[in-house]
Amino acid sequence: RRLVYSTEKRLPGTMLLLPSHWFITYCGRCILLVPFLRLLFIPPLQDAEADDSQQILSRYPGQDDLISPHVAVWVLSGSTAILPCNLTAPTKEDSVKLVLWYKRGILKPVYSYDLRSNPPSHWKNVLQVDSRVSFNERTAALTLQRVSYEDQDQYFCRVDFSTSPTLSYYANLTVVVPPRRVAVYTDLGAEARDEVGPFLEGSIVRLRCQATGGSPSPVLTWWDGSNVIDQDQEQDSPDLFANTLTLDPLTRADLHRTVTCTAKNTNLTAPQQTKISIDMHFPPLSVRILNSRDSLSAGEPYTFMCLAVGARPPALITWHLNDTVLSHYNVKVSDKGNVTRSELRMTPAIQDEGKVLKCTAETESPLLHSSTKPLSDKWPLDIYYVPHTAIYPGRSLNLSNIEEGDDVYFECSIKANPKVYKISWLHQGQELIHNVLGGVIVSNQSLVLQKVTRQASGNYYCMASNFEGDGKSNPIQLKVKYAPVCRGNQMLYHGAARYEQVNIPCVIDAYPMPSTFRWTFNNSGESVDIPQDHIELQGSRSTVHYTPMTELDYGTLLCWGTNEVGRQKGPCIFHVFPAGRPDPVHNCSIYNLSVSQINVRCVAGFDGGLTQTFILELYDPHTGLLLSNTTNTVPTLEVAGLEPGNSYTAVVYSTNNKGRGEMVSLPVYTLKDVAEKRT
């Protein structure tokens, strides 16, 4: 395989018979010493040809210390390795006859390409490379597919020519095997996947990165972004590599910090890496009620906002009013999770004045329950409300026994925020004005009524005013006791025929109600009591059933009532006279002229002692036909739905139980429906 000695001399342009020389050749396990003579003709060399010849000769084994070229081939396990060779002959006239591929440590070739036969033949050593190997004569490369770590070694290609000495080319095949697994473990030996924690502020974190296998040996480094933070590698065993990262006491800035363990043993592929994110739990940094601390109005709905910042997981917010837990609120968490907002809907009441509204934020993390206290923000509530008033009688006053002429006084109790600026006193809804001469004395929260009369009876109120409104108290009723008096607006004249019973009511005002009534008949100065069986008593009303029998039975009936205060001072007077038909109406006229309605009013005559009714009849003046009639209890009558521009005859009269009064006739008419009137 190598020329070890030669006496060959070459003289350009000569043909020489050279002495014999020896070649040492390896063939299997035997060494052959082959003597032979060579007759060479060496033509003269041009400069370019001389350079090429020197390059070819430099590849001859044994020419000098430059033994055959060595090529380093790196390939990833499982991929394809291409081992280069060179089939270029030293001279143009020469050609390749045989190509042999050897693997170090194996005597037999692993592959051969034989050009001595036609066509050329390929042979492979199936015991070593099976079907994964092939040779491409165009590229002069040996291809080895699906390489494994066992394929790593030195390969050389031996090329035999027809006349030229053998050439050899070496390829150092390195098979790169990535680490089988890269994993990160915590102090407790648990494998960390994507995230570790949660940790608290001040915690020291240790992460151990381990890589198993790999050729060449992997290099483990820890990265924080693009910065290397730890490259101190340990090797626990020939097949186990590790790097332990220690993080300084954690701060809030380390939340979601991502560190990466990288295992690298080649540039052929991207390094294997495992990323770990740091999870942390924090107590809230602050909690604050965002509302301005203004005064609140009772009965008005409000929304209160509370903001808790810095907690992870999100803060648990609760609301309290003094010791009462409130429930009508909702919670919203920001996208980043460290801001929690709570909205409370509450309608403050008067009794909430001075109470403390408190928003409390605490962590939901069990890691922090024992080491942190909840944070709170407190707001003492100032509640504005309409004054609450209550009215009371004077301490020594007995409202159930007030009589005319007594003095009465009331007190007004007021609870208000803000302070009241006005206090008013009301009697039956009307404001009382300070009037000493009238017996009304208003003094701030007191009211004095001097020498009261029955007109002072009724409901009394006190009312206080502030900026929230007017607060009216509960009513307190004053009932002034007084002797009976005759009520006004009673029917004083009653007509009756002889033997006709007339029922005459006597209504009086009194407090308390009268217990007895007395009736007398007076005619020509002679007074006679009416028997009690003719008298009917109904509360404050007494009705006498009176029947005149003769002309002397017409006259005046007198009525008195008596209660616990005393007897009525002046009687109620009723006149009984013989009843008859009503007198005719008079002074009749039309008013409020219209195109479709007639309005007539008259003055009533004497009713004959009985209730009378007024009637209007409307006639056609040409035919005398009755067109309409209407009645009323007062002498004001109207007829509607008439044609415009017509004349009519109206007849007005009154009637009672004794008959009809005299008729009064008058002409009436409706207006014409002209454009001006319509306008």
Automatic annotation (TrEMBL):
Residues 61-168, 179-277, 283-376, 387-479 form the Ig-like domain. Pfam families: C2-set_2 (PF08205), ig (PF00047), Ig_3 (PF13927), V-set (PF07686). It comes from the Eukaryota. Its main location: membrane. It is found in: Membrane. It is a single-pass membrane protein. Keywords: Disulfide bond, Membrane, Transmembrane, Transmembrane helix. The keyword Transmembrane applies. InterPro entries: CD80_C2-set, FN3_dom, FN3_sf, Ig-like_dom, Ig-like_dom_sf, Ig-like_fold, Ig_sub, Ig_sub2. The keyword Transcription regulation does not apply. Gene3D superfamilies: Immunoglobulins. One of its GO terms (cellular component) is membrane. This is Ig-like domain-containing protein.
